[in-house]
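Side project, low priority. Logging it here so it doesn't get lost.
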Amino acid sequence: MRSGRFDLSSKVALITGGGRGIGRAITIGFAEHGADVAICSRTKSQLESVAEEVVKIG
């Protein structure tokens, strides 16, 4: 889903609250647009779930 207007290739994003809600959506969106993401969450299980999705995206 990478487009020229929102290409995050070669960028790194640190996303806090990435385990659920808006933070999760931002994490997935950034990953879909090529960013390397670092995710912070208070809940390990939520963090692992999002991390699995990011790995599937590539």
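Brief comment: The mean pLDDT is 93.
Revisit when time allows.
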